[in-house]
Design a protein that fits this description.
- It is built from 8 helices and 11 strands.
- By secondary structure, it is of the alpha/beta class.
- The protein has 2 domains: about 80 residues, no CATH class; about 190 residues, Vaccinia Virus protein VP39 (Rossmann fold, 3-Layer(aba) Sandwich).
- About 5% of the residues have low confidence.
Length: about 270
Amino acid sequence: MNNKIVNRLACPYDHANLDLTTKSDEGNGYKCTKCKRLYPIIDEIPNFLPDELRTWTTNEILNTKLSGVKNEIIGVGNWKPGFRGWSPSFIIRTLSFGFGQGRVDKMTKGYTLDVGCGDVAKGDVNSDIYVPTPLPKNFILASADLLPFKDNSFDIVRSAYVIEHNLYPVEMVKEHLRVCSKSVEIFTDNSDWLGVYVYRLLNVGSIFHDEHYHKWSKEYFRNILNRLGWHGKVSVFNTSPSLLVKGMSVLGKLPRIGVIFYRDLYAEIYKNKK
């Protein structure tokens, strides 16, 4: 990891303090000079996860066996990093027939942090709460609402299909705004999409995903921005490769109900009002 990134690192619990030269029993690591927390580096991956997950994930990386692991992760039930709750059925795969991968390719120019990057990382620096395969460049284990960076460390902070997984979405966005200097870009599912009701009938889809805790619509996301005094924009779009979903877009300009024909939602929040 280059010095440009290292110089931006901070304790996620205290953004002004971090000793970059600490060594521990596990190897090299970082230590907060104030709270004394130790953040190990395992296989060149810095582990800045929250307290209840950091030790667990470090042991997973080291391939050690844990007893009673469910009880060791406080407040997260049976959940563990990297769990993905459902696989599309034959019907869903048929309805989703199309071309392409349905990935969000939009990237704003600027030094970018991709939060919750998964295996399709788009940032100059990338973070997630589990280790993706293949390993992204400049990867750090970190929680979306507790980032290990100093204020204004990046031009852009980006997250694609992460906010619906987060138990504390407002805190997550606040943390994104803290570490960016220009704007935050958030992609998520549009809960008003017509396909959600089809999925409900089939008992599959995003609302039955074990890692999804919040639903978002264009209006509700705007309400959050207005309530917190954030300046930005919220829009809907379709990134799905499905020909059926793409075809729905022709009805998107209908008044009032046009929003139900878009699968995805995009919010851009500016650090400073324009």
